[in-house]
Amino acid sequence: MIYIKGVNGVKIAVYDYNPGGKETVFLVHGWPLSGKMYEYQTELLLRRGYRVVVIDLRGFGKSDVPAYGYSYDLMSEDIYCIVKALGLRAFILVGFSMGGAIVLRYMRRFRGYGVKKLILLSAAAPCWTQRENFPYGLTKDYVDGLIYLASTDRPQLCRNFSRQLFSCPHSEYVINWFEGIALEASGVGTIQTAVSLRDEDGRQDLKCVNVPARIIYGMKDQVVDPQLISTQHREIKGSKLYTLSDSGHGIVYDQLKEFNKYFLEAIMC
Description:
Elements lengths: L1 E4 L5 E7 L6 E5 L10 H9 L3 E6 L15 H15 L4 E6 L1 H12 L5 E7 L18 H13 L1 H11 L7 H13 L2 H13 L3 H4 L6 E6 L7 H10 L4 E5 L11 H13 L1
Parallel strand pairs: 3-4, 3-5, 5-6, 6-7, 7-8
Antiparallel strand pairs: 1-2, 2-4
Helix pairs in contact: 2-3, 4-5, 4-7, 5-6
């Protein structure tokens, strides 16, 4: 692990595996997790000779926890700082859930600098919550409840979240593992990014994807509305959609074998 300075000097934890690899895959996690969520994709890619760059977004994992600055604009700029610092070119950018919304913002703000392909995994985009002229997603009242719980009983929030991730049966050890990753996040980062999830509007971001895009989604997802995925697929020209019939929101593990098959196909094709 190394630290790279993002916006306003915030230190972002970066895991740069196999820098001499044949091609780079850049992985951005979702809320309220960290780069650890990609354990079973990182190893998969390394066995096939890829360079894998995984980050902990500000406020999560081992990254710094600033008091403020959790907008999609600033977090996408952190990604740009890392891309420039590592000299990345022609890389594949991957975002899960909130991370999907952040990488879409990167595509708009930085014109997809260095990106050759975009992969969205159960992306919470373009808007995670309902609003005027966009009746899809969760209600703002529901998300306000999540923010309140994060502010008063974050361990309970993490426990609830880890049990909402999956549709397929998994051992208590797996569920506890995801709960533990969520608990490692800062309270500040958990709350303030939840506010961003509630308030950010990324509808213009979708129109700025000018590279091949792949979308992977679990049909039993209880966190991201399927209408959001339909919107992504419709608005991103030429995008290809893969669906996992029995997966919930935690697609990186729920149907692990099937997901990894689609994930590799999305990377290679």
